[in-house]
Specification:
Distance between the termini: 55 Å
Number of strands: 0
Low-confidence stretches: none
Helix content: 55-70%
Structural class: mainly alpha
Order of helices and strands: HHH
Strand content: under 5%
Mean pLDDT: 81
Shape: elongated
Largest sheet: none
Radius of gyration: 21 Å
Amino acid sequence: MEMIAPLRDAASWILICTGSFVILTGAIGMLRMPDVFTRMHAASLIDSLGAALLILGLMLQAPGVLVALKLAFVLALLFFLGPVVTHALAQAALGQLDPMLDEDRRAREPPSALPGRPADEGRPRA
């Protein structure tokens, strides 16, 4: 029984740190998204994976079965309510915004061609 505790602690900390990294990286990356719909998509993915890893890590650290079951219930709520909330927000945003779907973003110039930036900045080097 004494040998299991360090393994459980290590697994718990790996899950918690990985979940924190996913949430932090996703939040920083979400700032680069161009519009509300892609940001909502990214936020729903961050919420699902990052929260699941964090809660699983916390479940390993739970002092009793009742606390672990409560955390599992919270995880189930996140998985079932997250897509519903994202869909509701997307429907509200679609009703409030001008139609954005008729704009073809693929025809736009790359960010490196914007005025004030050198032409080779932002392009991957071969």
